[in-house]
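USER:
Working in pairs, take the chain set out below, taking as long as you need, and write a paragraph about the fold.
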Amino acid sequence: MRSTWPTRWSCSRRARSCCGVRPPSCGRSSASACYPPLTARRSDRSVHPRISVSAISTYTWDLDRDIEFWAAAGVTNVGVSMAKLNAYGVERGLRLLLDSGVHIGNVIGTGTSGLAASVDVASELDADCLVFTTGRAAPRTWEEAADALARTLVPLVPRAAELDVPLALEHTNSLRADVGFVHSLRDAIDLARTLDIGVCMEINACWGERALADTIAAGIDRIRLVQLSDYVIGTLSTPDRAVPGDGDIPFDRILGSLLAAGYAGAFDLELIGPRIEAEGYEEAVPRAVHAVELLLARLGA
Protein backbone atom coordinates (compact mmCIF):
# COMPACT_ATOMS: atom_id res chain seq x y z
CA MET A 1 0.00 0.00 0.00
CA ARG A 2 1.43 3.37 -0.93
CA SER A 3 1.44 6.44 1.29
CA THR A 4 -1.98 8.03 0.98
CA TRP A 5 -0.91 11.66 0.60
CA PRO A 6 2.58 12.18 -0.83
CA THR A 7 4.22 15.58 -0.61
CA ARG A 8 3.73 15.82 -4.36
CA TRP A 9 1.30 14.04 -6.61
CA SER A 10 3.27 10.92 -7.49
CA CYS A 11 2.89 8.84 -10.62
CA SER A 12 2.77 5.53 -8.79
CA ARG A 13 -0.36 4.26 -10.52
CA ARG A 14 -0.76 4.82 -14.23
CA ALA A 15 1.17 7.84 -15.48
CA ARG A 16 -0.67 10.80 -13.93
CA SER A 17 -1.47 13.21 -16.48
CA CYS A 18 -2.53 21.05 -17.13
CA CYS A 19 -6.03 26.47 -19.44
CA GLY A 20 -7.42 29.55 -20.20
CA VAL A 21 -6.74 32.14 -22.84
CA ARG A 22 -8.98 34.03 -25.15
CA PRO A 23 -8.99 32.36 -28.58
CA PRO A 24 -7.19 34.27 -31.32
CA SER A 25 -9.43 36.76 -33.02
CA CYS A 26 -10.32 36.04 -36.59
CA GLY A 27 -12.67 38.95 -37.11
CA ARG A 28 -15.77 36.80 -37.44
CA SER A 29 -18.99 37.49 -35.67
CA SER A 30 -19.09 34.43 -33.39
CA ALA A 31 -16.49 32.51 -31.42
CA SER A 32 -17.53 29.19 -32.91
CA ALA A 33 -17.06 30.53 -36.43
CA CYS A 34 -13.32 30.87 -35.74
CA TYR A 35 -12.87 27.10 -35.64
CA PRO A 36 -13.17 24.37 -38.26
CA PRO A 37 -15.53 21.44 -37.70
CA LEU A 38 -14.64 19.25 -34.72
CA THR A 39 -13.64 16.15 -36.66
CA ALA A 40 -11.42 18.15 -38.99
CA ARG A 41 -9.81 19.91 -36.06
CA ARG A 42 -9.11 16.92 -33.81
CA SER A 43 -9.25 13.60 -35.61
CA ASP A 44 -5.53 13.58 -36.40
CA ARG A 45 -4.10 14.26 -32.94
CA SER A 46 -4.68 13.91 -29.22
CA VAL A 47 -5.37 16.63 -26.69
CA HIS A 48 -2.52 17.69 -24.39
CA PRO A 49 -2.24 14.91 -21.74
CA ARG A 50 -2.55 17.35 -18.82
CA ILE A 51 -5.95 18.50 -20.03
CA SER A 52 -8.88 16.48 -18.76
CA VAL A 53 -12.46 16.91 -19.98
CA SER A 54 -15.14 16.22 -17.39
CA ALA A 55 -18.34 14.47 -18.41
CA ILE A 56 -20.06 17.36 -16.63
CA SER A 57 -19.05 19.46 -19.65
CA THR A 58 -21.47 17.43 -21.79
CA TYR A 59 -24.08 17.41 -19.07
CA THR A 60 -27.13 16.18 -20.99
CA TRP A 61 -25.36 13.45 -22.98
CA ASP A 62 -25.15 9.80 -21.97
CA LEU A 63 -21.93 7.79 -21.86
CA ASP A 64 -22.31 6.45 -25.39
CA ARG A 65 -22.35 9.94 -26.83
CA ASP A 66 -19.59 11.12 -24.48
CA ILE A 67 -17.24 8.39 -25.62
CA GLU A 68 -18.00 9.00 -29.29
CA PHE A 69 -17.32 12.71 -28.76
CA TRP A 70 -14.08 12.14 -26.85
CA ALA A 71 -12.78 9.91 -29.62
CA ALA A 72 -13.63 12.44 -32.32
CA ALA A 73 -12.11 15.29 -30.31
CA GLY A 74 -8.88 13.45 -29.50
CA VAL A 75 -9.64 13.56 -25.76
CA THR A 76 -7.78 10.81 -23.91
CA ASN A 77 -8.00 12.05 -20.30
CA VAL A 78 -11.51 12.39 -18.85
CA GLY A 79 -13.53 12.89 -15.71
CA VAL A 80 -16.45 10.54 -15.09
CA SER A 81 -19.68 11.63 -13.40
CA MET A 82 -21.14 9.12 -10.94
CA ALA A 83 -24.59 10.61 -11.54
CA LYS A 84 -24.25 9.95 -15.26
CA LEU A 85 -22.81 6.50 -14.64
CA ASN A 86 -25.67 5.60 -12.29
CA ALA A 87 -28.22 6.73 -14.87
CA TYR A 88 -26.52 4.65 -17.57
CA GLY A 89 -26.08 1.56 -15.40
CA VAL A 90 -22.89 1.15 -13.40
CA GLU A 91 -21.76 -2.29 -14.60
CA ARG A 92 -22.60 -1.54 -18.22
CA GLY A 93 -20.95 1.86 -17.97
CA LEU A 94 -17.79 0.46 -16.42
CA ARG A 95 -17.39 -2.01 -19.27
CA LEU A 96 -17.94 0.74 -21.82
CA LEU A 97 -15.39 3.06 -20.22
CA LEU A 98 -12.76 0.36 -19.78
CA ASP A 99 -13.19 -0.79 -23.38
CA SER A 100 -12.92 2.79 -24.68
CA GLY A 101 -9.26 3.13 -23.72
CA VAL A 102 -9.63 6.60 -22.18
CA HIS A 103 -7.65 7.46 -19.06
CA ILE A 104 -9.95 8.21 -16.12
CA GLY A 105 -8.39 11.24 -14.51
CA ASN A 106 -11.11 11.58 -11.90
CA VAL A 107 -14.49 10.36 -10.79
CA ILE A 108 -16.97 12.99 -9.56
CA GLY A 109 -19.01 11.53 -6.73
CA THR A 110 -22.61 12.27 -5.84
CA GLY A 111 -21.90 13.39 -2.28
CA THR A 112 -20.91 11.69 0.94
CA SER A 113 -23.97 9.42 1.00
CA GLY A 114 -22.74 7.50 -2.03
CA LEU A 115 -19.04 7.79 -1.32
CA ALA A 116 -18.40 4.12 -0.53
CA ALA A 117 -19.81 3.01 -3.88
CA SER A 118 -17.91 5.80 -5.63
CA VAL A 119 -14.64 4.58 -4.10
CA ASP A 120 -15.25 1.13 -5.56
CA VAL A 121 -16.05 2.58 -8.99
CA ALA A 122 -12.94 4.78 -8.95
CA SER A 123 -10.87 1.72 -8.09
CA GLU A 124 -12.40 -0.32 -10.93
CA LEU A 125 -11.60 2.49 -13.36
CA ASP A 126 -8.09 3.02 -11.93
CA ALA A 127 -9.00 6.70 -11.56
CA ASP A 128 -6.38 9.17 -10.41
CA CYS A 129 -8.72 10.53 -7.73
CA LEU A 130 -12.29 10.60 -6.44
CA VAL A 131 -13.76 14.09 -6.07
CA PHE A 132 -16.59 14.76 -3.65
CA THR A 133 -18.36 17.67 -1.97
CA THR A 134 -19.08 17.83 1.74
CA GLY A 135 -22.85 18.13 1.77
CA ARG A 136 -24.75 20.95 3.43
CA ALA A 137 -23.99 22.26 6.92
CA ALA A 138 -27.30 23.87 7.91
CA PRO A 139 -28.59 23.91 10.58
CA ARG A 140 -25.23 22.94 12.09
CA THR A 141 -22.29 25.28 12.51
CA TRP A 142 -19.34 24.94 10.15
CA GLU A 143 -17.34 23.20 12.86
CA GLU A 144 -20.16 20.79 13.67
CA ALA A 145 -20.51 19.93 10.00
CA ALA A 146 -16.77 19.33 9.74
CA ASP A 147 -16.91 16.98 12.72
CA ALA A 148 -19.81 15.09 11.13
CA LEU A 149 -17.86 14.78 7.88
CA ALA A 150 -14.89 13.40 9.79
CA ARG A 151 -17.10 10.73 11.34
CA THR A 152 -18.48 9.81 7.91
CA LEU A 153 -14.99 9.40 6.51
CA VAL A 154 -13.62 7.23 9.33
CA PRO A 155 -14.22 3.93 7.47
CA LEU A 156 -13.77 5.39 3.99
CA VAL A 157 -10.30 6.93 4.20
CA PRO A 158 -8.52 3.63 4.95
CA ARG A 159 -10.70 1.82 2.41
CA ALA A 160 -9.77 4.35 -0.28
CA ALA A 161 -6.10 4.03 0.66
CA GLU A 162 -6.32 0.24 0.46
CA LEU A 163 -7.78 0.52 -3.05
CA ASP A 164 -5.26 3.23 -4.03
CA VAL A 165 -7.97 5.84 -4.64
CA PRO A 166 -6.94 9.36 -3.52
CA LEU A 167 -9.89 11.31 -2.11
CA ALA A 168 -10.23 14.96 -3.13
CA LEU A 169 -12.56 17.30 -1.25
CA GLU A 170 -14.01 19.94 -3.57
CA HIS A 171 -14.77 23.41 -2.23
CA THR A 172 -17.80 25.12 -3.76
CA ASN A 173 -19.26 28.47 -4.68
CA SER A 174 -20.99 29.91 -1.61
CA LEU A 175 -24.26 29.96 -3.56
CA ARG A 176 -24.11 26.15 -3.52
CA ALA A 177 -24.64 25.71 0.20
CA ASP A 178 -26.94 22.85 -0.78
CA VAL A 179 -23.99 20.67 -1.78
CA GLY A 180 -21.12 21.95 0.34
CA PHE A 181 -20.10 24.07 3.31
CA VAL A 182 -16.45 24.60 2.36
CA HIS A 183 -16.32 27.72 0.21
CA SER A 184 -12.62 28.62 0.01
CA LEU A 185 -9.48 26.83 -1.05
CA ARG A 186 -7.82 27.79 2.22
CA ASP A 187 -10.56 26.14 4.30
CA ALA A 188 -10.54 23.11 2.01
CA ILE A 189 -6.81 22.60 2.53
CA ASP A 190 -7.08 23.09 6.29
CA LEU A 191 -9.93 20.59 6.53
CA ALA A 192 -8.19 18.12 4.22
CA ARG A 193 -5.12 18.12 6.45
CA THR A 194 -7.31 17.33 9.45
CA LEU A 195 -9.07 14.53 7.56
CA ASP A 196 -5.86 13.26 5.92
CA ILE A 197 -7.27 13.54 2.41
CA GLY A 198 -6.67 15.69 -0.66
CA VAL A 199 -8.34 18.67 -2.31
CA CYS A 200 -9.92 19.41 -5.65
CA MET A 201 -9.16 23.06 -6.38
CA GLU A 202 -12.11 24.65 -8.18
CA ILE A 203 -10.63 27.78 -9.74
CA ASN A 204 -14.08 29.18 -10.53
CA ALA A 205 -14.80 29.22 -6.79
CA CYS A 206 -11.48 30.54 -5.44
CA TRP A 207 -9.88 32.79 -8.06
CA GLY A 208 -10.56 35.97 -6.06
CA GLU A 209 -9.29 34.69 -2.71
CA ARG A 210 -6.82 36.68 -0.63
CA ALA A 211 -3.19 35.54 -0.99
CA LEU A 212 -4.18 32.73 -3.35
CA ALA A 213 -0.61 32.10 -4.52
CA ASP A 214 0.49 31.67 -0.91
CA THR A 215 -2.39 29.28 -0.21
CA ILE A 216 -1.45 27.23 -3.27
CA ALA A 217 2.22 27.07 -2.29
CA ALA A 218 1.43 26.09 1.30
CA GLY A 219 -1.14 23.48 0.29
CA ILE A 220 0.29 22.01 -2.90
CA ASP A 221 0.86 18.66 -1.18
CA ARG A 222 -2.94 18.36 -0.80
CA ILE A 223 -4.06 19.43 -4.27
CA ARG A 224 -5.01 16.35 -6.26
CA LEU A 225 -6.94 17.98 -9.11
CA VAL A 226 -7.56 21.46 -10.51
CA GLN A 227 -10.95 22.19 -12.09
CA LEU A 228 -11.11 24.88 -14.71
CA SER A 229 -13.80 27.12 -16.19
CA ASP A 230 -14.20 30.86 -16.56
CA TYR A 231 -16.37 33.37 -14.72
CA VAL A 232 -17.87 36.48 -16.30
CA ILE A 233 -18.06 39.34 -13.81
CA GLY A 234 -21.70 40.32 -13.38
CA THR A 235 -22.97 36.73 -13.45
CA LEU A 236 -25.59 36.42 -10.71
CA SER A 237 -26.59 32.77 -10.94
CA THR A 238 -24.94 29.38 -10.72
CA PRO A 239 -23.94 27.27 -12.49
CA ASP A 240 -23.18 29.70 -15.30
CA ARG A 241 -19.63 29.03 -16.35
CA ALA A 242 -17.77 30.12 -19.45
CA VAL A 243 -15.08 28.80 -21.75
CA PRO A 244 -11.64 29.81 -20.43
CA GLY A 245 -10.76 33.15 -21.96
CA ASP A 246 -14.37 34.29 -22.33
CA GLY A 247 -14.49 35.69 -18.80
CA ASP A 248 -12.38 37.47 -16.21
CA ILE A 249 -10.36 34.85 -14.32
CA PRO A 250 -6.57 35.48 -14.52
CA PHE A 251 -5.62 31.95 -15.53
CA ASP A 252 -2.04 32.80 -16.48
CA ARG A 253 -1.31 33.98 -12.97
CA ILE A 254 -3.17 31.19 -11.15
CA LEU A 255 -1.87 28.31 -13.25
CA GLY A 256 1.56 29.89 -13.11
CA SER A 257 1.37 29.75 -9.31
CA LEU A 258 0.30 26.11 -9.41
CA LEU A 259 3.12 25.10 -11.74
CA ALA A 260 5.68 27.09 -9.75
CA ALA A 261 4.54 25.31 -6.59
CA GLY A 262 5.13 21.93 -8.24
CA TYR A 263 1.64 20.87 -9.27
CA ALA A 264 2.07 18.00 -11.72
CA GLY A 265 -1.52 16.86 -12.19
CA ALA A 266 -4.31 17.44 -14.65
CA PHE A 267 -6.39 20.52 -15.35
CA ASP A 268 -9.97 19.33 -15.61
CA LEU A 269 -12.35 21.31 -17.80
CA GLU A 270 -15.72 21.37 -16.04
CA LEU A 271 -18.01 23.52 -18.18
CA ILE A 272 -21.67 23.88 -17.29
CA GLY A 273 -24.47 26.40 -17.56
CA PRO A 274 -26.49 28.40 -20.07
CA ARG A 275 -23.48 29.79 -21.94
CA ILE A 276 -22.22 26.28 -22.65
CA GLU A 277 -25.68 25.01 -23.59
CA ALA A 278 -26.25 27.96 -25.93
CA GLU A 279 -22.97 27.46 -27.78
CA GLY A 280 -23.28 23.69 -27.84
CA TYR A 281 -20.90 21.10 -26.44
CA GLU A 282 -19.43 20.32 -29.86
CA GLU A 283 -18.07 23.86 -30.09
CA ALA A 284 -17.58 24.94 -26.46
CA VAL A 285 -15.50 21.96 -25.34
CA PRO A 286 -12.97 21.97 -28.23
CA ARG A 287 -12.70 25.75 -27.94
CA ALA A 288 -11.91 25.38 -24.23
CA VAL A 289 -9.35 22.68 -24.96
CA HIS A 290 -7.69 24.91 -27.54
CA ALA A 291 -7.54 27.76 -25.04
CA VAL A 292 -5.82 25.70 -22.38
CA GLU A 293 -3.40 24.21 -24.87
CA LEU A 294 -2.29 27.71 -25.83
CA LEU A 295 -1.89 28.65 -22.18
CA LEU A 296 0.11 25.55 -21.34
CA ALA A 297 2.38 26.23 -24.28
CA ARG A 298 3.00 29.76 -23.00
CA LEU A 299 3.70 28.48 -19.50
CA GLY A 300 5.99 25.75 -20.78
CA ALA A 301 3.91 22.91 -19.34
User: Anything to note?
Assistant: Residues 35-299 form a domain with the TIM Barrel fold (CATH 3.20.20.150).
